[in-house]
Design brief:
Layout (H helix, E strand, L loop, with lengths): L2 E10 L3 E4 H5 L6 H8 L3 E4 L6 H15 L9 E5 L10 H8 L6 E5 L5 H14 L5 E8 L12 H4 L5 E10 L4 E9 L7 E2 L13 H5 L6 E2 L1 H22 L9 E4 L4 H11 L10 H4 L6 H11 L8 E8 L3 E8 L1
Parallel strand pairs: 4-5, 4-6, 11-12
Antiparallel strand pairs: 1-7, 2-3, 6-7, 8-13, 9-10, 12-13
Helix pairs in contact: 3-4, 8-9
The protein binds oxa(dethia)-CoA.
Amino acid sequence: MTRAYVSGTGYYVPERVVTNDDLAALMDTSDEWITERTGIKERRYVADGVGTTDVAIPAAEQALEAASLTVQDIDLIIFATSTPDYMAPGSGCLLQDRMGFPEIGALDIRVQCSGFVYGLSIADQYIRAGTFRHILLVGAEVQSTGLDLSDAGRDVGVIFGDGAGAAVISATEEERGVLSTHLHSEGKHAKELWSEVPASGRNPRISVEDVNEGRHWLKMNGREVFRHAVTRFPESIMEAITANGMTAKDVKLIIPHQANLRITMEVARRLKVPLERIHSNIDRYGNTTAASIPICLAEAVSDGTIQAGDHVVLVAFGSGFTWASAMIKW
Ligand code: UT7
């Protein structure tokens, strides 16, 4: 039986470090408030003119190198982002061109914070079906250019950061790799975390008035998102565990989307899992949406936290609402 496994990982974050004190110079906030409510100490922002594909490239190059593959070996690009370079075409096409891939398929998926896990489920299906042998899966975001860094946007502005993570998903005949994936959505909550414009239902899609009224910024009903997140994360983790006839004790590492450290702590409490078994880097990078899970994964692989034979759960929740999990045997 053919299974999909992670044959290489990589990540990239921009050099520019933005501390909580840097944000406190721009808006009415403080290091104390941000640290206490979110666990974030700093995040990375791109330089002017740097877009989502730009941050994806070094992460993808690293993942290819770790997998000992070249662009010629890849059969499909899956690009998860909520901040594509343009409304059209997708960032996957830009990556195909910039990195010199052959004329392979390039698929953008827009599932916000759950994008990487959704992307993994797609890669898994193509590989199990025998259609492809190697797929490049990228999660990349430039959030900083969509944040209102004034007092009015302080609840959202302090949370998000820029970055990219990538993984090569390859075929194996061994008893390992992606064991299951579990996808969900509940679109009635779409406006709890969204950007209203540009919108296809408006003509023009974005107007000067929209910009003056701040409709282009990312907006979030933080309390509502939080309330759903603390239920969906544990539920989704347990879905992956029970689908494989396991218990939480069998899982070496849980890699949650980095939404908020308080959410991670609540997940640990509800599942009675020690915090050391839940990967966290939100203090350094903030919430990087679709990039957060592949960045964590690349860190946990490179620092040796994940070893052959370990069971790892990836889990995400975010805008949509969407949520998803995956069980991987390393
Ligand atoms: O990746 C997508 C998933 N996103 C998430 O999971 C985010 C989920 N939500 C959260 O993490 C939290 O709701 C936040 C961190 C966004 C906010 O924390 P909270 O404890 O829910 O705060 P709140 O929105 O209830 O606001 C409490 C107070 C308010 O002031 P008043 O009305 O009590 O006077 C806010 O105006 O904190 C104020 N506030 C701030 N104060 C200083 C909101 N943002 C800030 C800020 N600095 N940046």
